[in-house]
Amino acid sequence: MMLHFREPAKLKTKGVIFEDVYAARDSATLENLKELSSKRKVIEDSINQNCYITEAIAREMSGGLTCPFQQDLRKLEQYLPLLENLVYHVDLLGSNHQISWWTSELKIRWSSALGASSFFNLMGPKFYQIDNLHFELGMVLFLYGAILRERALEIVPSDLVQSATLFREAAGVFLYLSQEVFPSLQPTLPAERPPEATSYMSTVMSLICLAEAQAVSIKKAEEKGTTAGLLAKLHYGVAEMLGEAIDVLYSANGQCKDISSRFMEFIWSCKALHELRSQKYLAESLKDAGQVGIAIGILHDALINVKKKMPGEESHKSIFRKEVDVAADMLIKCERENEFVWQQKIASGDELPLPQGNKIVNAKPYRPKRWERELAFKI
Prior knowledge:
Helix content: 55-70%
Strand order of the largest sheet: 1-2
Largest sheet: 2 strands, antiparallel
């Protein structure tokens, strides 16, 4: 089983009406702005949970899609090319004062799902206003990547191959954000900003999605009967990717005081879980090779370490307990077998092999689409 953390997709936003702010010079531009507002409105209603249409109507509006995540992805895919076109034309005008003033009047506001205060605000979510269309583009793409990840999680039980592909697509979206969208936005961002609007958080999310893609690929490898030695390396590869994500967070954010403690615990817990699974498979591989004393030492160390890292989240605890129980049972069996058959010395400390990781997944590149329509403003 995989640990779940669904908060990244729980972004909220305030309404934006483009045609009320940007003065269109012709009817075609006006219609385009109205379409932008309309496409955004259906996204607002969905993520703000203000949409009260029936399942049948929602299915019809989305071309027959029955899954809410797929419906939201369709809405975002219809909005993004129009938004990319607006961003392109506004950027062409550079630092025009009129355009800058109009953009500020849009009052683009998004909440954070990964900030430290996101989970305990009794007055509702805090909204951050940043007067830049690249902020809107970045947050919409972040939401798109997060919902791709949710859809990937949803289909793990039924389609491992497609799930891994969606995780890789999500990783590609976040990688694009970290390399192409947010770097140019950083100099203009105020000190108070949502973590989602930073390059480092997109890098972290990309690494998490890749780790999850590899975790799903391991499930497929287990079904095919892959050797324990290789499974150990693949699980440790997942742990290494999550370790990279932790390093990025701390190098960019010091003590991570403005990052959700639940998000931090999720990453640490996933890392610890895959380290345990890696050590369990390594011990199995060594036992099969007749090195029972080393296998016992690895399992003993693994159980001591993982018990120090037990997560607080109850749903995560239950998954941890099952893995700990499996490793503990394996240790008991190895100890009995060693006592009666092998009588090998129990390895410890420097006698234990260092873990090795293999990484077999990469991000699927995100290719932005722009609806190439000419826009003309009264400037």
